[in-house]
Structures are given as structure tokens and as C-alpha cells.
Amino acid sequence: MKSKPVNFRFPEELDKALEEAKWELRKSKSEIVKDAVKEYLKNKAPAIYKKYLEEKGKL
Q: What are 17-27's pLDDT values in tens digits?
């Protein structure tokens, strides 16, 4: 799947937590944010998440 750069702003304290988490989880900030968005959609917008999986060929 192609990646697209996305720009957004975080509160400073959330960015600090993300910076710390990347070392503990051994993942990039981008990977952590992608995982979090997927999990959010899965729980809060399951129809949209299902559509994403279908487009990705995972269903």
C-alpha cells in the first residue's frame, strides 16, 4: 500500500509521550500513530475499518 505524508499537530506532552514510547516499543512514531488510528477505527468506526481492510485485500 502506498504511503502518503500527513501533517498534523500534537499537544507537546503527547508528543513527549510518543517520543518516549518509540524507544520502549522499538517502533517509529509513524508506526505507533498508524497502529493507534487503525485500532481507533476498528473500535469506533468498524464499517470504515472493514472497508479499509477490503481495499487492502485483507478480507
A: 999 999 999 99
**Helical packing angle, 46-56 and 29-44, nearest 10°:** 120
The answer for residues whose C-beta is within 8 angstroms of residue 38's C-beta and 6 or more apart is: 49, 52
| Cα gap 39→6, rounded to integer Å | 18
Given a cut of 70, whether residue 1 has pLDDT beyond it is no
Question: Residue 2 in 3-state DSSP?
Answer: coil
**Ramachandran region, residue 6 (left: φ > 0; alpha: ψ -120 to 50; beta: rest):** beta
| Contact between 35 and 49 (Cβ < 8 Å) | no
